[in-house]
Design a protein that fits this description.
single chain; 144 residues; alpha+beta; Archaeosine Trna-guanine Transglycosylase, Chain: A, domain 4; 6-stranded mixed β-sheet; 3 helices; 33% strand
Length: 144
Amino acid sequence: MLAITVDAAKAADFLTARINMLQLPFDTDLKGYVLVCASGASQDEGTIPGKALCYAELTGCDPYGDGFLWKFRSLYWIEPFDAADAAAPFEVDDDLIRIIPGFIEPIDAFNEFYRPAFVGDDTHWQRLLDVFAVEDEDEDPGFW
């Protein structure tokens, strides 16, 4: 699968579906699934650096600012694994990608699979999990 490395904070926002677009310095005409990896260049609190975190379907890419806006849909969580810090898209062996089953509650999936690699204390962890805080159980948490 094609993979991209992005800033660890952006990767955390992408993983929690706060954003569904990424501004990157390169263009593509690719459509299909792309693995999103968090850069390991910094160990900022509130991130999961140096890991492949999820994949999503790339639906388009448009010029934006001094780069390109990659647009995604259909986010899939995976069991995180060590990933390269690459300046350009790269290939990852599909055998490394293990999807987290959809029947696992999001909060449980985060605690089991993502928390072990998380940088930060419980305050930072809770901020990441706030996306799952839903007042009304019929309310959609906002995943795209």
